[in-house]
Amino acid sequence: RKEVEQDPGPFNVPEGATVAFNCTYSNSASQSFFWYRQDCRKEPKLLMSVYSSGNEDGRFTAQLNRASQYISLLIRDSKLSDSATYLCVVKGDYGGSQGNLIFGKGTKLSVKP
Amino acid sequence: DAMVIQNPRYQVTQFGKPVTLSCSQTLNHNVMYWYQQKSSQAPKLLFHYYDKDFNNEADTPDNFQSRRPNTSFCFLDIRSPGLGDAAMYLCATSSRGAGETQYFGPGTRLLVL
Prior knowledge:
The complex is a heterodimer of chains A (113) and B (113). Helices cover 0% and strands 55% of the residues of chain A. Chain A has no helices and eleven strands. In chain A, the strands form two sheets. In chain A, strands 2, 4, 5, 9, 10 and 11 form a six-stranded mixed β-sheet that branches. The termini of chain A are far apart. Chain B has 113 residues and is an all-beta fold. In chain B, strands 2, 4, 5, 6, 9, 10 and 11 form a seven-stranded mixed β-sheet that branches. Chain B has a four-stranded antiparallel β-sheet with strand order 1-3-8-7, with no helix packed on it. Chain B is globular, with a radius of gyration of 13 Å.
């Protein structure tokens, strides 16, 4: 089982749509979780951290379910500029990977006019 | 602006010809990372430095080496590039104890002929 798994997409949605991405992680000892955004041929950039209680930043809502080892990202009122690949990231607080980030392959979002 | 800088942005080398990629940072972060990202794949951590302490990932080929002469600079040396080493190479930094967000440079895209 891969450490971080995501639906690769692509998700093709119209402007204004609500879209949700899901992610699962394999190691129950993981402590920190993030969503990164990566535009085509650019570097990943932190979108938001994911907290146990769930958190919101404008149109973006992230949730964590530790029991199911599941992370989600909800984007409301999609904009054309939201088109990118969204990477689910888990921080390895275990073994030799302490402090290292483990990336999912990403889910590609394409928002159409 | 404080940032992570990578040079060059694009690098072409020949099969078997050593190549060095460079990364510098003005963030004064004590941790620096090198990732390899191939098309439609997750960034894969090669190694990282915690200050001057080098930490190699178990599955990083011996062909890949790194140097960190000071806090600001870190180099990735590929001793004998193969066709399979063509990828985007991302440098990132973080400051342990300060939320540990990783900040990525724009990457160097390596092409092996």
